[in-house]
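Study this one:
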Amino acid sequence: MVRARFDAKPLAEVRAMMRSAFPCPDRIVTRPVAGAAGRVTAGPVYSSLTIPATDIAARDGFAVVSGEILRAGDGSPVPLRNPCRVNTGNAIPPGYDAVVMIEDVIGRDGAWYTENPVLPGEHIHPAGSEIRRGDLILPAGHRIRPCDIGALLSCGIVAVDVREVKVGLIPTGSELVPAGNLPGPGGAVESNTAVAAALLGEAGATCTRYGIVRDDPVLLRQAIKNGIRENDLLLISAGSSAGTRDFTAAVISDLGEVLVHGIAMKPGAPAIVGRIDGKPVIGVPGYPIAALTAARELALPLLAAWGFSPPPAERLRARLAGTVTANPGYDEFVLLTVSRTGDGYTAIPLPRGAGPQIALVRANAYLHVPAGTGGIGEGTEVEILPTGQCREQDEVCKPTPEQPVQDQKETFPVKDST
């Protein structure tokens, strides 16, 4: 028996192909402003109101006619004629053109005096000084922030048109059970789609997790057809490798076409990129670290090309506390535990092959080793991408001695021949 491997496509090449092959879906929905944080505006948003609608007081005090107190000065108080008491934000009555602050007013014999003259418009916010009806609040393609919600509501906007992208997530595997159920021998709780939904949701995608599909090509075919019909992007967890129950590539090929099967990245090498009815289908490995990496490095860049991306990730410089070995033919993503050390940061590479879920919890950053780089020596300062808060040196969760240091095993799709 001879095992034949498919060629692994460079990650950068795959991403470029995906951007070219899959144009941005044209889906627009109307959302209440109060629930629109993280959404991307479909078009420019204009104010429905003029703010302030009239001249308003900028300070607590008295509205006055400025020309009547021009002669005021230190030691020469002048009376306020027909002053109108105002608080900050109150409308300025007609005929008044300035405000004397309350701390600059002296009460004497039932009258009010001031030694501080004011200029026309002083301590007044003119009508429309913040925004006028019809003025632009947010441009098209703007990711709505929490602070934007207050401005939109204040300007009379209660609903906003936003772009939407729908992502379907299908978990596969007869060994899987839903969260809350006890898996049997050789079983596992399904978690990959929950992680992917949280990751892609941060980019503004509307994610739908479907039920677990057993290892049956007929059932998988029906699930994929349904997922493609209801979504703009479909992500299938597990079934992308070379096992006897890995049907994802064959079903995608039957319903559409497989564009890439095997990507030069670790973890996540057996990932699939396909196209069905013009829509992208991404098959990710079932191994949790590989599934997360494939979703992050394939689905997120495509969403970003469509205008959906999470808040910019912080990047730090850290010094490696161990040697990182990497295949120069691959883009590799290495989990790290990063801690503060004095004025800088120290990064400990986590052992490959350790418990996948706990490794993800212990890691608070990762290192991207680009293809062509190869290994990186201990003590080298590298750029890292945090996934959590960096700890103090004595808080670091170091791997236990029992955890083996070994390469994560991943296989490419293979064909048996005699």
Remarks:
- The CA atoms of residues 213 and 223 lie 8 Å apart.
